[in-house]
Amino acid sequence: MKVARISRLLATAALSLAVTATSVLAVAQQAIPRDTVGDKNKTSQPIGDAWITTKVKSELMVADNVPAKDIEVETTNGVVRLSGMVADRAQKDKAVDVAGRIDGVTRVDASALMVQPAR
Predict the structure, then answer these.
(1) Of 26, 39, 60, 88, which sees the most CB atoms within 10 A?
(2) Which UniProt keywords apply (predicted)?
(3) Cα separation of the two ends of the chain
(4) Which burial class, exposed, middle or buried, applies to 50 when counting CB atoms under 10 A from its CB (0-12, 13-18, 19+)?
């Protein structure tokens, strides 16, 4: 019983941290206009990719029937790439749906999100 309670507390703490990080990134994104970033600070990633990744991860954590801890999320130029292992096709479809609903996501690539083989 103590293990289950500790697990719930850790999940709650992780969600709280993800939501806080999402808020900080959103504020930072609004505070730095794209046209004021000099060439020496330019990266291949738009400012919004980190925010998108954080938002997708936090939404996966609160989604029903999605094993968020087993899904890796990467974002490049608005394209979200999901990878990892899920139990069934319904979990994969749900993860793709959740990621696709996030503002700024242009496409979801789930080709590396595998479904466990039936036993």
Answers:
(1) 60
(2) Periplasm, Repeat, Signal
(3) 29
(4) middle
With 0-12 / 13-18 / 19 or more C-beta atoms within 10 angstroms meaning exposed / middle / buried, residue 95 is: buried
CA–CA separation, 70 vs 117, rounded Å? 16
Angle between helices 2-31 and 48-62 (to 10 degrees): 150
Residue 104, SS3 per DSSP? coil
Q: What is the pLDDT of residues 24-77, one digit of tens each?
A: 655 555 554 444 444 444 455 555 999 999 999 999 999 999 999 999 999 999
Residues facing 86 on adjacent strands: 115
53 Cβ contact list (under 8 Å, min separation 6): 73, 74, 75, 80
The two tokens of residue 98 are: 């959740």
Closest CA to 84 of 67, 99, 98, 100: 67
